[in-house]
């Protein structure tokens, strides 16, 4: 390395008396995309195991999509029941709600 006249790079000065046998090597700051992503994410944690298939729900239905018949009947009951008849909608539709809860539990949902 040449240190004359305040330059500290390997033999790039034309007047340098010491010549390097090989061309100077510059530090490599080139990172590949995968390295950048790895640095950004930090240490890799193990991924959780896939959820076990529910034997009661082999199709993997979500709660919003399970039991469409009882859900529609329950919703229709609440929409069409008014308090004008003197009977509260909660009491009138109780059997529909219970039927929907039973259907949801048959698929393994805990409601």
TrEMBL record:
One GO process term, biological-process aspect: mitochondrial respiratory chain complex IV assembly
Broad class of where this protein is predominantly found: mitochondrion
Residues where Cu cation binds: 64-65
GO MF annotation list: copper chaperone activity; copper ion binding
Cited InterPro entries: Cys_alpha_HP_mot_SF, Cyt_c_oxidase_Cu-chaperone
Tagged with keyword Metal-binding: yes
Places the protein is found: Mitochondrion intermembrane space
Record's keyword annotation contains Disulfide bond: yes
Gene3D superfamilies: CytochromE C oxidase copper chaperone
Parts of the chain that traverse the membrane: none
Family (UniProt): Belongs to the COX17 family.
Listed name of the protein: COX17-domain-containing protein
């Amino acid at each position: 390395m040449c240190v004359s006249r305040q330059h500290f790079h390997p033999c790039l000065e034309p007047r340098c008396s010491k010549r390097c046998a090989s061309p100077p090597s510059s530090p490599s700051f080139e990172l590949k995309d995968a390295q950048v992503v790895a640095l950004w994410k930090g240490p890799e944690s193990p991924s959780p195991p896939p959820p076990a298939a529910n034997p009661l729900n082999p199709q993997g239905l979500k709660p919003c999509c399970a039991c469409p018949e009882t859900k529609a009947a329950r919703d229709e009951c609440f929409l069409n029941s008014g308090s004008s008849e003197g009977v509260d909608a909660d009491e009138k539709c109780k059997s529909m709600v219970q039927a929907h809860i039973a259907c949801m539990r048959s698929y393994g949902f805990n409601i």
